[in-house]
Design brief:
alpha/beta, 23% strand, two-stranded parallel sheet, 215 residues, Rossmann fold
Length: 215
């Protein structure tokens, strides 16, 4: 069983309960408006879905993506009452979410857990319309000290962490990347990335990304 499938067994009951403040911060900083389309990348059990649906309203659209079948099953159960929410079981590193289809996207603790962070970030950028925004909270174990080294090793063991620096990958593709907190923690980063208004294929990286339509 994959780590995240295994984690799904306890995730829903345990970690979901503590995600409220971060979820609310994400929705607030994204400035979601009624009628907008939003993408939740690595949605897990869908803890953020109620906030997203509330923000975009009945005329908006929410698409959530996760690779773990168990996480997806729980998220789908949670989303069943909203006709404008779709939960896709897909690998965010290799799947096109829909070019320019989304006004906003969010990835909470998700990119660093993926095997190809650069591809996942490029696919997220490709999914956004020009000027679209992406809220990211993630692990950032870039420091070169003993504690960070131990954390890196532990995270690699349990979740296959590749060592990629999510913030650096965001800076490589997005027009603007700004910290949400003035002082970023040593082990996590919370940022808002905005896709450039004028976009070329070279900027989105979409042409070079191993991206397939979800299906
Ligand atoms: C730490 S959990 C975060 C879940 C959720 N965003 C939250 O805040 O509760 C990381 C999630 O990323 C998903 N994930 C890992 N690799 C993935 C990939 N390649 N494509 C899509 N989802 C992936 C895992 O299945 C897991 O649900």
């Amino acid at each position: 069983m994959q780590f995240w499938d295994f984690a799904a067994l306890t995730y829903y009951r345990l970690l979901d309960r503590f995600s409220g403040p971060l979820n609310r911060l994400a929705v607030r900083r994204l400035g979601l408006r009624p009628g907008e389309a939003v993408l939740d990348i690595g949605c897990g059990t869908g803890a953020l879905l109620p906030e997203l649906v509330h923000a975009v309203g009945p005329h908006g659209r929410v698409v959530a993506v996760d690779r773990s079948p168990r996480m997806v099953r729980i998220a789908r159960r949670r989303a069943a009452r909203w006709p404008n929410v779709e939960v896709r079981e897909a690998d965010a590193c290799t799947t096109c979410h829909g070019s320019g289809e989304f006004d906003a996207a969010v990835a909470l603790g998700a990119f660093s857990a993926m095997p190809d962070v650069a591809a996942a970030v490029a696919n997220a950028c490709d999914a956004l319309r020009p000027g679209g925004r992406l809220f990211v909270f993630d692990v950032r174990l870039a420091k070169d000290d003993r504690v960070t080294g131990l954390l890196r090793r532990g995270y690699r063991l349990v979740a296959g962490f590749t060592g990629a620096d999510v913030v650096a990958e965001l800076r490589a593709v997005f027009g603007r990347v700004e910290p949400v907190f003035a002082v970023e923690g040593d082990t996590t980063a919370t940022v808002l990335a905005t896709k450039a208004a004028q976009v070329t294929d070279a900027v989105t990286g979409s042409a070079g990304t191993p991206c397939r339509p979800a299906g």
